Amino acid sequence: MGEGSVVQSECRRPQQLLENPAPTNAASRTLALLSAFDGSRSVFGVSELASRASMPKSTAHRLLGVLIDHGYVKRDGNRYRLGEHVFELGSRALRPRGLREQAVPFMAELHHATLETVHLAILHDREVLYLEKVFGHRAPPCPTTVGGRNPAHCTALGKAILSRSAPETVEHVVAHGLARRTPHTTTHPDLLRRNLSLARDEGVAVDLEECRMGLACVAAPIVDRRTGEALAALSISAPIARFDKRRLAARLGKVADVLSRACS
């Protein structure tokens, strides 16, 4: 739950450039250019892409032409966006196979029963990656997008997955710092570990305005029964004023259990 911030993304960019020096070969430059299409926006100008990818504008323009020829990028006037071929490849990369297809009917049922926003996500490094989102007309501002990401430590989805992940996965998240997104974000490692332990015991994790003010979320892990570790997580988000953890968790837990059996 929550939203990626364009401002935050841009503020991080100088540090990212220090940590990731300019690529030195054609393949690396091309991948860096593709990676520049991140954040909550979908279209960029060549100058901005060149800056994000740490390369000359002329190089970016030339590589964009190659990517357009191969269907990875499309041009809209003097701006660029990712092409459908990227989506095709990304869909094939999802693991476990069929998770999204199996989850969507249950997500639709959860939305119909609660009239709240339902998300499906996996853990991608230290963030949750949204695979699907179901919402309706009365949904509050929750500009998450399929293919978008948010920090794992301040989302119910992330905490649900981490609660059933290997200790080294949790420590990897902690080691890179727990950035504050709102006044309610958990930023102390020991408190996060206690919250994850509680989430494991209860079977659900909660985010009370930790990622976005005014929104609350409850999430349950989808677990590989063979290993005991989370494959993904399912969540229900609602405005804090009408958030009912017990009611939402009861419905969510049943669906997560069914999907855990189906995916194992």
From TrEMBL:
Residues 24-84 form the HTH iclR-type domain. InterPro entries: GAF-like_dom_sf, HTH_MetabolicPath_Reg, Tscrpt_reg_IclR_C, Tscrpt_reg_IclR_N, WH-like_DNA-bd_sf, WH_DNA-bd_sf. PROSITE patterns: HTH_ICLR, ICLR_ED. Residues 85-264 form the IclR-ED domain. Residues 1-24 are annotated as: Disordered. PANTHER family: HELIX-TURN-HELIX TRANSCRIPTIONAL REGULATOR, ICLR FAMILY (PTHR30136), HTH-TYPE TRANSCRIPTIONAL REPRESSOR ALLR (PTHR30136:SF24). This is IclR family transcriptional regulator.
